Every structure is written in C-alpha cells, then in structure tokens.
Amino acid sequence: MRSFGFFLEETFEGIRRHSTSSLVTFMQAFISLFLLGSMLIFIIIVNNFVSSFLNNMEMAAFLVDGLTQEQVVGLKDGILELPGVREVTYVSKEQAYAIMQQRTTVDIDDLLQDENPFPACLKIKVTSPKRARELAGLVEQLEGVDDVRYGEEQLATILPLFYGIEMTCFFLAIVLTGVTLLIIVNTIRLAILAREKEIKIMQLVGATSGFIRFPFLMEGLIYGVGGAALSLALLAIVYKLLLKYTTEHFVYNPWVVDYDLMMGNLALILFILGGLIGVIGSLIAVDKHMKKTEFQPSIPAEVG
Amino acid sequence: MPTEPVVHFQRLTLVYPNLIRALEDVELEIRQGEFCFLVGPTGCGKSSLLRCIYLAEYPSKGHLRVLGRDISSLPPSRIPHLRRNLGVVFQDFQLLEFKTVGENVAFALQVIGAPVEDIRRKVPLALRMVGLEDKLNMRPGELSGGEQQRVAIARAIINAPPILLCDEPTGNLDPDTSRDIVRLLTLINQRGTTIIMATHDAQIVNAFKRRVVYMESGKVLWDRDQGEYKIDDEKLRLLS
Q: What is the pTM of this model?
C-alpha cells in the first residue's frame, strides 16, 4: 500500500514529463475507441432490429377438425414442453374466421355461404428461429396437428442476411480492437523509449519486474479509460442527434434502441475494452523493452 | 584471520551471443571488506567481470558465488533480490536529470518498496556521507561531474549493500576530483563495504596501494596485494 502513492506519483509524473507522447497515445486511444464505439452502435442497432423481427416471428400449427377441448389443451401443453417454444396461443375456428373477415375486403360470408373452412390453430412463438425447421417437424408429428407453417421462404432469405451482417460487424469489431491494441502498444513503446533510463536504473537498484511494470500499466489504463470516456461523450452526442433526427423525420423507427440502454451498454463495453487494451498494450510494450535493456541478462553463447 | 569470500569466480567463462569471448576461465576470490582494483587495457574484460557479479550477464561456463550463493544460474525473478545487496556506480553516473539530488538517491529505496520513514531518514545520511547534504534540492545538471558521481555513490550505498561495484567511476573526471572520489570510496570501504573498482587510471591505483587484479584478453594475468600498475608494462605486453 505504501508503494501505491509512489506508483501514482510516478504515473502522473511520467505523463506530465512526456506530455507530447502522452497526448498522442491518448488521442490514438480516443480515435480508435470512437471508431470501435461507432461500430458497436451499428451492431447494437442491427441486433435490435433482428431481435424485434425474430421476436414477432410465429409458427402456426393447424389442427384437424373435431378436437375436444381436452385434446387441444393436451396439445398446447405438449408443444410448450418442446425445446425452443416460448409461447403457445390457441385460435379457434371461429376466431380464425373472424380474423379473415377483418383482413379481407371481400364479403366472405357471402363467398363461403356460412361455411367455415378455416382450421383452428395453435400460434407458437419460438425462442430461436434457427430451430424453427426442427421444431416444425416435431409439432407436425403430434396427433391432432394437420399442418405446420412458419414462413420458411421468408426466413430462408432474411436470416442468412441478418446473421451475415451481424458476423461481419462482429469480425470488424474484433479487427478494430486488434488494430487499436497495436496502435496503443506502439505509441506506448515510443513513450517508454523516452523513459529507458528510468527502467534501467530501476533494474539496477533491484526493483522487481512487477514494480517496474506497474506505473506503466496505470498509465496505459489512464489512456484506455480516458480515451473511452471521451469517445463515449462524443458518441452520446452523435446518437442523441441521430435519435432526434429520425424521430422527427420518420414515423416508423423499428431500429431505435433506447438512449439510456444504448449508452449503458456502450459505456460498459468501451470502458472494459479501453481499460483492457490500455493495460495489455502497456504490458506488451514495457515487457518488450525491459528485455532489451543493458542490465537484463541475455542467454550466453554455449561454449565447448 | 582471513574473512569469507564475498565474490568467488570459479573457472568462469563468458561468451557473448555475438561469440566474443569476454572472460576466459577466470578464477578470482574477493574477501569481505577488501578494496580491489581491476585494471587492464580497454576491452580486457573488467566491465564484463563486474556485469557478471550484478548478473547483467549469465556466465557461459563455470560458477560464480556472490555473498555465499551460487548465482550462475539464478532465475531472472531472483536477480532484483541479488542487486539489492549490491551497489553499482558507473562512469556516466546514470542519474535521472528531472529528479532532484534527494529524489535520485531516494529512488533506489522507493523502487524496492521501502517505507517512507526509512527513506526520509536514510537520504540525508547518505548525502552527508558523500558531502552533499546541502545539495538535496538541486538537479544533477546543476552539479559538477564529481558531485554527480557522489550522488550516484550515495544512491548506490543508501541501501547499505555489502558490496559496491564501481565501473570506471573516475573515467569522466579530472585527476583531483578522481582522487576525491576514490578517497570517498576508501571511506566507505573502511565502514566494511567490499569495493571492486574497474579502472585504467594507473595514477589512482598506484596512489592508493590496494589489491590490484590485472586482466588482459578476458584472463586474470596477475593479482597482487598493494600492487602497482605500470602502464608501460601493460603497453609492452600489448605490443608483444
């Protein structure tokens, strides 16, 4: 604990003394994390859009005519127990007829002459559309189920597209994180070069590697978290403006994610990522440097 | 009664990764409380020998015991603990220009996690020992070369190491200042610290009449108590 004050002093002294390289590192962290944050906003929006679409996806299990109430309840319970089922709602023949009446402009009473050809059905909400085909197969085998429909063609087109976008964004976020890490490692390495003598003297007087590393790790943490805070502030302004513009100009905004929710998620991700990148970046940079100083023994050549 | 050897080279050979043989089969014992000059021409292995003691180099062959412990294959994680028992002084002082004299000296204790009270007590004592108690708040750039070397010595002895290694400590200083520095080292030696000093300054060596170990091409050629180092002998030897 007594060393903590010394670490803090050394960290801020180091930042102050090498203010130019510190500012460059901080700006690099900020720009990289801002780009990463923008990408994350896009990923969250796409994810929200996909989720809202998929959450509304329903599967319809059409029932054979003449089932008793007990049979329908039994079927409903049976389906609810299947994996991937979130909710099951019964729609009777009469309700199906009424729905059709509402949906069409044609007078179906006249057209069907009081006959009701619409089957009763169970509307099934699924947890994962990926398993819809498998689930449909299981439901179809149940006694009392005539046919199952779940918008196979729509799903076959839309799902791969959404997952493709999601995977691309995820991949880009990983690449951007890697690039950010590389940039921070290199800028911190430059900053460390200016402090070579300090590291050498620390090694000479018997400071442990952990002790030498610690002020640099704190410095990296400050760059990472500071960069994350600044980029978060800027992203908050940008997102607020975006929300204001879209709600003013468009009636239907299915992609919109609540401002607080978005910023909460973003803050969590950016602070953790910024902190980790800063610390790992510093660790890589200082370790590489420590191995190269003239007081660090190298492996000697073998002699006969 | 002979004292314990604090440094013991046992047929030690050092070959650098670029295959330069810096030390060849060195056999040398330095006892507690001794003041030993390491002399010889440039590149003879004086600095390499000192670097082995503070483990800036691992020996390629043979053994080296420091303070009773074989350090030839000491794991890197234990090196800091070895160095806390050694003080090292260089020709170029190795001071941090942005820190004051007091801060430079305190740095050696801070980085090993010494308590603040200890640091506050020991820094003025070390500076008094080297005669710089009134320069506590000055920066190295404001001091003369001799004074800077005294700061480096104060930093090296603040942790009261049993061994002080000096690598050409007078190399950058004029003859009078050089004598002052060696006088200071003698004083430190009288308090029980073993001193091993690499130098090629024959005047200093001959003036202080201490043990002299002469090296050439990585080998110890002769080792004499109160020996004299004749530069002409060395030149003749080099020519031959």
A: 0.72
